[in-house]
Design a protein that fits this description.
The complex is a heterodimer of chains A (220) and B (288). Chain A is α/β, with parallel strands linked by helices and 220 residues long. Chain A is 35% helix and 24% strand. Chain A contains ten helices and nine strands. Chain B has helices spanning 3-8, 27-36, 57-66, 82-94, 124-135, 165-177, 190-200, 217-226, 234-241, 246-261, 279-285; strands spanning 13-18, 42-45, 71-76, 99-103, 152-157, 181-186, 206-212, 267-271. In chain B, helix 4 packs across helix 5 (124-135) and helix 5 (124-135) packs parallel to helix 6. Classes of the chains: A alpha/beta (220), B alpha/beta (288). At the A-B interface, helix 8 of A face helix 5 and helix 6 of B.
Chain lengths: 220, 288
């Protein structure tokens, strides 16, 4: 899931300086779970912006705003409200924000910061577990990603900064390599840690990446 | 005899450390270098230690060489990708610097530019392998070099790591990758260090034990609390507390520890933290 955090309201208002008519678009998926772009948050934003003298042309929750075809359909359905709007306030991730612009052609203002790809541990608790590197080695590391759980992304074991099982970067961070070590030990797979892992192939993650699924290629 | 030859001949070695200044004024460090000349076998030059931006370790390594002091060029993975690391290693070779100590490097968030992008493109094990590859006449991508470098590759190990097994696994990987000598984190508990030596004896490699001067009881307590793998016993802290002269006491403790380590390690690495002028006194007191 894509984890987002709402921007400080002052920052949002700064982006909306001189803007009168705002269309608010939330997200029915990740941003709803993150409480940054669900029904409650969108309605609250509507009230808040009205209080700052803005005219809200419509509020909508798109499902999801990162899907170009969904955005185009919603744009057709909401043509009048969108035509009236100076900007769309995107209450979804950066991907949603882009796709809303791409699918509507309108000026878009982000209401959130997009943080990471994470696991929903429980309601309102999210943890970063994958860095989208395009070169997954979780099989070798007992399921813990060394690029994500180690702030240095080391591939061959802990650095000298481990203190009481914690990372030198923060006492709130468990040493990723101790997590990997303990897990591999539990699995009887410490030999995987003893192997020298080669440098990562960063050519697999040159941006911007595009994928066309093989099955789709055959169809077209 | 070079450090490499001394390692091979199992000579007991003394190394020390110089931290480049923040700026271009090298007067103080050159004075320190002259004090250390002839008394130590080599001097490490730190690479923006603790992620604090400083004058480069390569330039200072070369300055030491010109002073007649054998440098150990410290090279961290923190600030350079694999292109820059290889390029800097080749630069070291043409500047006549053979000894390279490979380190991961502290995370930038710990230093004075916490907004910096952390690089860590290679880790320390991979960097050792890369230096070996350069020695073989090829770069990391397999391209032929026009002229191959020769290095004496060092690495670090922390005998006080807890748990020690992951540290030992990494130590073994560094050794397999091609590390020729190891310098350790500061040792205060010689009995605990002896246990570590027992574990690594089988590898028959060169271990140079770290000595960090205790400058004050507060500093000792700070290190116990904040520095990974450091354990300074209370008895030692009390001894420093009761001392009439802190520098005399630092010299006495360091000399005593060095004597105790002589049969265990193949050398000592004195990290004076700015008190390099005490190093000759420490060596006198240790009978070296």
């Amino acid at each position: 899931m894509i984890i987002t955090k709402q921007k400080p309201i002052d920052e949002i208002l700064k982006y909306l300086e001189g803007v009168k008519n705002v269309f608010i678009a939330g997200c029915a998926q990740c941003a709803t779970v993150c409480k940054t772009g669900g029904e409650d948050e969108v309605k609250k934003m509507e009230e808040l912006l009205k209080g700052h003298g803005k005219n809200i042309t419509a509020i909508e929750i798109w499902d999801p705003p990162c899907h170009l075809l969904e955005v185009r359909k919603r744009a057709r359905d909401n043509k009048a409200a969108l035509d009236k709007a100076d900007v769309i306030l995107s209450m979804s991730c950066g991907d949603g924000c882009f796709t809303i612009f791409h699918g509507t052609g309108k000026k878009v203002v982000p209401a959130t910061d997009t943080l990471f790809l994470g696991e929903a541990e429980r309601a309102g608790h999210f943890a970063e577990v994958c860095s989208l590197c395009g070169d997954c080695t979780l099989f070798m590391t007992g399921g813990y990603c060394p690029n994500t759980f180690c702030p240095k992304g080391l591939q061959n074991g802990p650095c000298g900064g481990v203190k009481d099982g914690k990372c030198e970067v923060s006492p709130d961070i468990d040493c990723g390599w101790l997590l990997i070590y303990n897990r591999l030990k539990e699995l009887g797979e410490l030999d995987k840690m003893k192997k020298i892992h080669p440098p990562k192939d960063h050519s697999k993650s040159i941006k911007p990446r595009k994928v066309v699924v093989d099955a789709v290629k055959k169809r077209t | 005899m070079t450090l490499k030859e001394k390692i091979k001949n199992k000579k007991f070695m003394i190394t020390s450390e110089i931290g480049p200044p923040k700026g271009t004024d090298v007067k103080t460090i050159l004075e320190e270098a002259r004090l250390l000349k002839g008394r130590v076998d080599a001097v490490n030059v730190t690479d923006s230690q603790s992620a604090v931006m400083r004058l480069g370790s390569l330039a200072v390594s070369r300055l030491l060489k010109e002073e007649g002091v054998e440098p150990v060029y410290q090279l961290t993975c923190r600030d350079r990708n694999r292109i820059a690391l290889q390029s800097d290693a080749l630069s070291a070779a043409v500047l006549g610097i053979e000894n390279i100590l490979v380190l991961t490097g502290d995370h930038p968030s710990r230093g004075d530019h916490p907004e910096a992008k952390p690089v860590f493109d290679l880790d320390s094990v991979q960097l050792i392998e890369t230096l070996k590859k350069l020695e073989s006449g090829k770069d990391l991508s397999g391209k032929e070099l026009k002229g191959a470098p020769k290095f004496c590759i060092g690495a670090v190990v922390n005998p006080g790591a807890d748990p020690v097994e992951p540290e030992l696994i990494k130590f073994e990987k560094k050794l397999k990758a091609g590390a020729e000598f190891f310098q350790t984190q500061g040792v205060y508990d010689v009995k605990a260090f002896a246990k570590f030596i027992d574990k690594v004896k089988q590898y028959n490699t060169c271990i140079i034990a770290g000595i960090i001067l205790i400058k004050s009881p507060d500093m000792a307590r700070f290190m116990n609390k904040n520095v990974a793998g450091i354990f300074i016993p209370d008895s030692l802290i009390n001894e420093v507390e009761g001392a009439a002269d802190k520098q005399d006491k630092a010299v006495e403790i360091a000399a005593r520890t060095i004597k105790e380590l002589k049969g265990l390690a193949q050398g000592v690495h004195i990290m004076s933290l700015g008190w390099n002028r005490l190093v000759p006194r420490i060596l006198d007191a240790a009978g070296l």
